[in-house]
Each structure stands twice: as C-alpha cells, then as structure tokens.
Specification:
Radius of gyration: 15 Å
Number of strands: 5
Strand order of the largest sheet: 1-2-3-5-4
Oligomer: single chain
Shape: globular
Number of helices: 4
Structural class: alpha+beta
C-alpha cells in the first residue's frame, strides 16, 4: 500500500494543486484514464468544501488530503478540522442533507451532491476532530510504476 499525504493552507488557490496531485497519483495507481476527470472534479469539490469550512470558521489548520493506492482500489480522503459532535452523527455533517435529499439547494450541499454524483464509493463522516470525505475508485491490473 502506497500513501501520499498532502496538507495545504485553506486558500482557494491551493485547490488546483491538490487536483493535479490527485490526478497524477491516481494515474500512477492505475485508475483508468476515462475516470481521471471525475477524480479531479471530486477532489476539487471536496477540497473547495474543506477550504470554505476552514475559512468560514476562522481556522488556520491545514486541509489534509490522503491518497492511498491499494491492490484493487485507489482512495482519497479529504479532511477538515471543523469539529463535529462527539459520536460523529452523519446528520450533523455540513452539506450531508444534499446527499440524502438531492432536491436541497445551497453551496455546501451542492458540493457534496456533485461528489456523490461523480463517485460511486463515497462516505462522509464527522467527529470532534473534524470531517472527512472518503472516495475510492477501482484500479486496473496494469498499474504503471515509475
């Protein structure tokens, strides 16, 4: 299992870098070329959401992105430092309502709705240390190793 961890200050201009890194690591892991645009878009949405949450809550902690290559899948976790309730109730995750009910409008809700439309395997969680969006994609058997 290979893992790349990226941390960046909660500034919108760093989201593009996170997207580029995610696409490069996904390509190296063996994610199909046709899916790379979905990876870029999903990571961009998740990172933009985390940046927005940090900025609106006045947090200076970095946004974290963990890219993990496993034998049959490639996963990305985007984490924020915005504390949720103890116990991690999914209903308390900002924007989760749009995933549960696609007719809801709102910027944060739309970001999660876009992610859930792009990624088949996505989960959202939150606890007292922050929130995490975990996304994964299958990899082909012919991963390129550099």
């Amino acid at each position: 299992m290979a893992t790349v961890e990226l941390r960046f200050s909660a500034q919108p201009e760093h989201v593009r870098t996170a997207r580029l890194v995610a696409a490069a690591v996904a390509r190296r892991a063996g994610v199909e070329e046709a899916v790379l645009d979905e990876v870029r878009l999903a990571v961009g949405e998740a990172c933009s959401r985390a940046v927005g949450l940090h900025r609106s809550n006045g947090l200076t902690a970095p946004v974290r992105v963990v890219l993990t290559e496993e034998e049959k899948s490639f996963s990305i976790e985007v984490g924020d430092e915005v504390p949720g309730p103890a116990g991690g109730s999914i209903e308390s995750v900002p924007g989760i309502a749009a995933v549960l009910d696609p007719d809801i409008d709102g910027e944060d809700e739309m970001g999660l709705a876009v992610i859930s439309g792009l990624v088949d395997d996505v989960s959202v969680s939150a606890d007292e240390s922050g929130g995490t969006i975990r996304m994964s994609w299958p990899v082909s058997g012919s991963a390129q190793v550099s």
